[in-house]
Specification:
Length: 309
């Protein structure tokens, strides 16, 4: 192993081609709006201009207006993508990003129009909304699905609580900022659409079905246990609306509980396999990083010994 390979380690390597390409798009979009500020009017989501500029429902998610936004989004994309893409596959990973980005923008657009008609505040119509944060929140839902019980030593928290923690922090911060409308709906809808996609729409070639209907990934698991008896009955209504047909056509007799009602179509074995793949991918990456760190240490010791001689 050469010193050049060891100097960088593996922490900053192993990023997928798709993630690096999307990171370039985020950085390029930020540069464009810095050089040409007027481009924000055409690329960001401005509800009053979405018709006829409908393309901003897609482009808004890839335009970061601040340097902090582009740094956080790029880092999050590269590092979380390095975990999720190998497990989902590049095609499914890209479909997830596109769907979450587009549908989040649609929901934010509808929310802004609704708030305008309720409050008659024109700021909701002309506030430029953009950023990759909705997809990042969707990524956290993916982490919750794949490695829910993995404890994050730096937070002393299990990975399954990451989406809930991110939203809680965003809501608290919104009380102290004047522009919370420009990011809070995006975070909320990004999390919810990410869960909807993984729960009902994500393709599963191995089991020839879509989604993850396991109990461990139910909507109520985003909330503390004492709130779940209240959340479950409401969630059950949407559960039947969104997966009723799948439940009726499924040949699997295994049931899962949603708000006290048992619905067929769940596969706890597949959910367990998914978690095992996620844990294995994470362990392999951490082992590779530890090996590289050990190699760097050994190389440094050799260099020191050579200098002493």
């Amino acid at each position: 192993m050469s010193s050049t390979q060891l100097s960088g380690g593996t922490m900053f390597t192993g990023f997928t081609r798709l993630c690096k390409g999307l990171a370039a798009v985020l950085i390029g979009g930020h540069i464009v709006v810095q050089i040409l500020p007027s481009a924000v009017s055409y690329l960001a989501l401005i509800p009053a201009k979405t018709i006829p500029f409908a393309w901003n429902l897609i482009t808004a998610g890839y335009i970061e207006q601040s340097i902090y936004g582009v740094v956080i989004s790029t880092i999050g994309l590269l590092f979380i993508g390095k975990l999720l893409e190998p497990i989902w596959g590049s095609r499914e990973f890209f479909k997830f990003i596109f769907a979450v980005n587009f549908l989040t923008s649609v929901c934010v657009f509808i929310t802004a129009i609704s708030l305008y008609y309720i409050t008659r505040e024109e700021s909701y119509l002309y506030m430029p909304i953009s950023g990759f944060q909705g997809v990042l929140c969707g990524f956290l839902v993916g982490v919750k699905q794949i490695i829910p019980d993995q404890e994050l030593s730096w937070l002393k928290l299990k990975a399954k609580w990451l989406p809930s923690l991110a939203l809680l922090v965003a809501v608290v911060v919104s009380f102290f900022t004047v522009e919370s409308a420009s990011y809070l709906p995006t975070l909320i809808f990004g999390t919810y659409i990410g869960w909807i996609y993984l729960r009902y729409w994500q393709s599963n070639a191995e089991m020839k079905r879509r989604g993850d209907s396991s109990d461990d990934f139910a909507f109520s698991t985003f909330f503390p246990e004492f709130l779940r008896p209240v959340i479950n009955p409401v969630a059950a209504i949407f559960e039947r609306m969104l997966c009723g047909r799948r439940s009726e056509t499924s040949d699997d007799s295994t049931g899962y509980t949603s708000g006290g009602s048992s619905l067929p179509g769940s596969d706890p074995i597949e959910a367990s396999r998914r978690r095992e793949r996620g844990a294995r991918a994470l362990e392999e990456r951490l082992a590779s990083e530890r090996l590289a760190a050990a190699g760097r240490t050994e190389e440094n010791q050799k260099d020191d010994a050579t200098q002493n001689v």
